[in-house]
Amino acid sequence: MEEQHSNKRAHSSGEAFFQCAAVFLPYLTPNELASISSTCNPLYQIAKLVTARRTSDASRTFENFPIPFLNPIVGDSQPYPYFLYTPTQVLQMKPDLRQPWGSDNESQMCQGQTRPDPFLFRVEGGIDCGCEGKGGICDNCPCMECGPSCMCDFGCGNRATQGGISVELKIVKDDRKGWGLRAAELIPEGKFVCEYAGELISTKESRQRQQKYDGLASNGCLTPALLVVKEHLPSGNVSIRINIDATRIGNVARFINHSCDGGNLDPVIVRSSGSLLSRVCFFASREIQENEELSFSYGSSSLEPNGQRCFCDTSSCTGFLPSEHT
Question: At 52, which helix (H) or strand (E)?
Fold first, then answer.
């Protein structure tokens, strides 16, 4: 009798352990996941499910559609690249931050059902356009895009970039370019595709990170995704520099590759009434076919012998990716 009770307790303890494992495994990095999955078959099976869920949706349910990873390269066993996801700009995050990815209850763990506020900082007393739109375009709206100061809600047609990605996308690996973002459906010209989201950092921090990234990238250990945008004010004498680093935490825009001919996306600096910071958003510059790779120009190329190679294969290709001297 005592032996039977002991077996039941052991069985109960084992079930509890593997239930806990299903909760903490989604917090692990790929290397940690591979290491723990080699210890026993039940953990291997849980890790296998985590990997399958990760490859099925890069966005962790933060976006309106799942965005899968596809790796068609024979002999390449990488199912997905690892990064933390944010659908909007965030302030600099702690280096030890973890985010669950691959849970069977992703929406609750990542709070994907409640989309984060697209505006980091709001300006009190901003101009109100008076728009009360709920699905239509406001007539004669003075705002480039309605923002926190406006009376309209997120259903307003002048808030096209604030509701998340509204087209179906996929992330596909190329044997030369690495991972790239592709259309999973036909995207009409002028359609909003995605925002460039990541850590909003200072210029000093940007330069320090870029120097570090350059060293790691030259060894093939890292694919950096640090975007530097200079916005010139109407006077022409002053420019605002925006540094968005999506290398460690970002969204699917970090996978958009460069094209020397400008690509099929227009990067637009969007300013909303009542918001202190502008946002970098991508719109289709022409009709984009299903399965077509999405791309834009990273800027003017500086031809450096040790620079990263460009594989856009356009007639205007310079052979090297643009880089900023930091």
Answer: helix 41-56
